[in-house]
Amino acid sequence: MIEALLDKSLICLGVESTAHTIGFGVATSEGEILSNELETYRPRTGGIHPREAAQHHAYVAHEVLRRAIQKAGISVEDIDVIAFSVGPGLGPCLRTGATIARALALRLNKPLVPVNHGIAHIEIGKLVSGGVDPLVLYVAGGNTLVTAYHEGRYRIFGETLDIAAGNCLDSFGIFAGIGPMPAPELEARKGSRLYPLPVKVKGMDVSFSGLLTAAEKLVRSGVCVSDASLSITEAVYSMLVEVLERALALTMKKEVMTVGGLARSKRLREMIDEMVKLHDARQLYVKDEYLGDNGAMIAWAGLLKYMHGLIVEVSESRVRPKLRIDEEEAPWMGKKNS
Amino acid sequence: MDGQEEFIELDVIKIGAEAVIHKVLWRGLTLIAKRRVPKPYRHPDLDKEIRKKRTINEARVMHRSKMLGVPCPAIIHVELSTSTIYMQYIEGRDLRDLLNSDADQSLRLAWRIGEIVGKMHRGGIYHGDIVPSNIMISDSLPVLIDFGLSGFSSEIEEQAIDIHLLERSLRANHPAIADDFMSRFMDGYRSMVGEDYARQIQERVVEIRKRARYVARGLRHGE
Q1: A2-123+291-333 sits in which CATH class?
Q2: What SS3 string covers chain A?
């Protein structure tokens, strides 16, 4: 196996299905992304219903897969490794993707690699932005954490004590009648007055539920939605940047990267730019296409793991909805700063 | 207080993520000035609000701790316009130094430190960042410093985090004496909060450790 690794570029198909997105991506061991196709389940009202999302994924999967293979310009026989998102995420959604990945691995007789969804976000971000060893803010609808590589694995320096930052802003937008992100951020640009909201930072952890309640109260009391949007987005982002700054002062990393759906926020990036200036660090920019959930990130992280022999038997490949980012080693990071 | 001109700023002794700490001279006395600096990335209104609130909180907690008999720097002056707290300068070295140089002496102080933390908790205050570098040893007596993350709460969770952070830091950096230190510490702590409460705290510490949520914090002082 090792000789093959050295000789030949490997091709990996990645399957992503943690939440509302089903994605297939093809990457090579040289770090080329050959394709990155996805479909997103959009509920007509409210949030994601896990079972409905899973049904959506099962329904569109073959079509998305076909597109990913076609756009990559390969045939299924060219695939060397199958990777899938093993967690964290919604159980029914994860199982849908995992089932497809297992079937492909068995059918094509190829090794199967379970990929930690959070680590995949980080690794694809590094790949496309040229980052080496960044401090990472991972902010999305379901995740909020500050992490960096330290002594063999990605360590969590801070995280939310209750709801995720994206969830907080989405819920606010839906409550205020403007819809989920990016609506609150766009609405905030029209705001002019900032109302004080409870900013809760504890060490490097953050808490958003009290803030959400207080912002909803503002709207209910008649404060205009644009001012309330300005107040909540500024509060959420400044909490995130503050804990990021604390972690930066501690880890003394030279790069800062934000990944996850909320990383698309212009205002958040702008604030991080201001913050990194104070610490002699730089911000890495990840293209929007690779910020949200996608299959290419699973393919790339799958290859990193595969090249360190980290594969799984199909019979052992159950999904892990509550998997944490610090639960596994990241041997591809080498001995750097350990 | 007559105004700012009374304070003569001397050298910067620490630049943290949130505040800059200077030595200052005031009427012939050496003091510490802890200044929360504006953050350019925050909306200016929010920035002002946050710095003001936290400065008031820190000063209130320290004042209350002093009244409870918890040894900590005395507050001399609070200047809200610059979010600065002027406080007593504590001579001596911190427990981290002492642990490295004189383990026996550190162990002899563990009971007393536990008693102080117990007194603080009993009074409804948590420190938020109890690690050896925030415990000064002055004239052979412990003094708690840096109340930047502290608050008023009698909730077991907040108080157990205090104990957890100390234990975690000791285990990471002084593994040989961590158990001995913590057992003496808990004896002193128990003498203040009582058998029952101390047990509840210890159970919660185990739970927090399992959650792993706070584990990475040990790195702060773990270099």
Answers
A1: alpha beta
A2: CHHHHHHCCCEEEEEECCCCEEEEEEEECCCCEEEEEEEECCCCCCCCCHHHHHHHHHHHHHHHHHHHHHHHCCCHHHCCEEEEEEECCCHHHHHHHHHHHHHHHHHHCCCEEEEEHHHHHHHHHHHHHCCCCCEEEEECCCCEEEEEEECCEEEEEEEECCCCHHHHHHHHHHHHCCCCCCHHHHHHCCCCCCCCCCCEEECCEEECHHHHHHHHHHHHCCCCHHHHHHHHHHHHHHHHHHHHHHHHHHHCCCEEEEECHHHHCHHHHHHHHHHHHCCCCEEECCCHHHCCCCHHHHHHHHHHHHCCCCCECHHHCCCCCCCCHHHCECHHHCCCCC
